[in-house]
Design brief:
Helix content is 13%, strand content 28%. Strand 10 and strand 11 form a beta hairpin. The radius of gyration is 25 Å and the shape is globular. With 426 residues, it is an alpha+beta fold. It folds into two domains: 221 residues, Oxidoreductase, molybdopterin-binding domain (Sulfite Oxidase, Chain A, domain 2), CATH 3.90.420; 123 residues, Immunoglobulin-like (Sandwich). The chain is built from seven helices and 24 strands. The N terminus is likely disordered. The strands form six sheets. A five-stranded mixed sheet has the order 5-4-13-8-9. It starts with a helix and ends with a strand. The structure holds ligand MTE and molybdenum atom. Molybdenum atom binds next to loops.
């Protein structure tokens, strides 16, 4: 085949292709018809030889070109990286499931290496028969699968006094959403027998981890018997070390701190322990200096992940997909509104799927950008009728002394260049 003939046929096929695309889709209408595109008309190196054989990577990692889709920490936030946190790159993900490899980590004394054969889970206290389970024992109870989000109560906590961190990863990335496989805590408590506890309505369980910090937390019995899972798989595979391998607690809709990793003991008690993690930490100091405790539930919240400071608009005016995440610890997301003008007017976004109970919901606003600046906001609603508050509404109730449970509406200022910045419109 002569070179000119090849170019001609390819060119014709290409033009036909682009005309068809333009008829169907807005974005594709900008097909570059200026000249032959060598990426289409020339045989490329990747088509001139073999690719990698199977087994090149017995356990695959993302392709190197995606190397910036990683967890990141903020160095000045914590004194060291053992009692610290990093952030999920939510600005670069889509859909709702967080891959374990880039799901945020929060440790109080580092991620420990605990082998299944060394794993023991004790249930003691006000139970008929104190029990110790091995990992193999846990695998013999009936299992359930559920997708839930886990949000650290400190997520967005740096933004109380004003816009601070420039990126959805840093303002809202203390969250992940996985499909967990595990045994209900109810099953294990009933195995030990709750007769000894008497009236269950005022009882608690105290849960602690095997790491040096132990991260002990008290959970009211109602919740313990409701939807709490003792989980050993996430997204189909074993939990990663950093997420509590081999077993962690999943406390749907409630603050991440209660999701005890490397779970080692569950004690049925007549009182809450009032441990460090539920008194000096994870309580909410109000304007008058008095702190609220037992604020376990993560209220409805949302954020636009793209465009956002780390995900600017790079394509100029025209078709624009605005996308983000919404969630509620009280139930399912029913609606998300998006504003392009800092909350003056709102449009209802499209939910990728109907909202699921205590799990992330993906929303899209498929819109046309005229190239002018925008103040992008999203506002979530859940099936209890709750509406995500503005920053001003939240401050009216909470003051500015809080760290935790900041679920206010976030604003990104998108400039004519497409770049975005964290700003406050309260
Ligand atoms: N044993 C133990 N469990 C723990 C912690 C810990 O340091 N030790 N950190 C808690 C906190 S504050 C959060 S937000 C979640 C974070 O879970 P992840 O690291 O899987 O994201 O785990 C919780 N469970
Ligand atoms: Mo946390």
């Amino acid at each position: 085949m002569s070179e000119s003939f090849k170019t001609k046929t390819s060119r014709r096929a290409f033009l036909r292709g682009s005309a068809a695309m333009a008829a169907g889709a807005v974005a594709a209408g900008q097909a570059r018809a200026a000249g032959p595109d060598p990426l289409i008309t020339e045989v490329q190196p990747w088509a001139s030889g073999l690719g990698d054989p199977v087994d090149a990577a017995p356990y695959g990692l993302p392709i190197e070109h995606e190397g910036d889709v990683i967890r990141r920490n903020v160095e000045w936030l914590t004194a060291d990286t053992y009692s610290s946190i990093n952030f999920t790159p939510i600005h670069a993900l889509d859909g709702t499931i967080t891959p374990q490899g880039c799901a945020f980590e929060r440790h109080h004394s580092g991620a420990i290496d605990l082998r299944k054969k060394d794993y023991r889970l004790m249930i003691n206290g006000l139970v008929d028969t104190p029990l110790v389970f091995t990992y193999a024992d846990l695998e013999r109870f009936p299992r359930e699968n559920h997708v839930y989000f886990c949000e650290c109560a400190a997520n967005t906590g740096m933004e109380w006094k004003g816009a601070q961190l420039n990126g959805a990863q840093f303002t809202h990335g203390m969250i992940h959403n996985m499909e967990y496989t595990g045994v209900t805590l109810r099953t294990l408590l009933e195995e030990a027998g709750l007769g000894a506890a008497g009236d269950l309505s005022d009882k608690w369980v105290y849960v602690e981890g095997a790491d040096a910090s132990s991260n002990g937390r008290s959970i009211p019995m109602d919740k313990a018997l409701d939807d709490v899972l003792v989980a050993f798989k996430a997204n189909g595979e074993a939990l990663r070390k950093e997420h509590g391998y081999p077993v962690r607690l999943v406390v749907p809709g409630w603050e991440g701190n209660m999701w005890v990793k490397w779970l080692r003991r569950i004690e049925v008690m007549s009182n809450a322990v009032e441990s460090r993690e539920e008194t000096s930490k994870y309580t909410d100091t109000l304007a008058n200096g008095i702190s609220r405790k037992w604020t376990w539930v993560m209220d409805a919240k949302s954020v636009i992940t793209s465009p956002s400071p780390q995900a600017p608009i790079t394509h100029g005016p025209g078709a624009l997909v605005i996308s983000g995440l919404a969630w509620s610890g009280r139930g399912a997301i029913t609606r998300v509104d998006v504003s392009l003008d800092g909350g003056i007017s709102w449009q209802t976004a499209r939910l990728a799927k109907p909202g699921e109970d205590k799990a992330l919901t993906r929303f899209y606003l498929d819109t046309h950008w005229d190239g002018s600046e925008m103040l992008l906001q999203s506002r979530a609603m859940d099936d209890t009728g709750y509406v995500q508050p503005t920053k001003a509404q939240l401050r009216d109730v909470r003051g500015e002394n809080s760290i935790y449970h900041n679920n206010c509406i976030q604003t990104w200022w998108v400039r004519e260049t497409g770049e975005a910045e964290n700003v406050e419109v309260s």
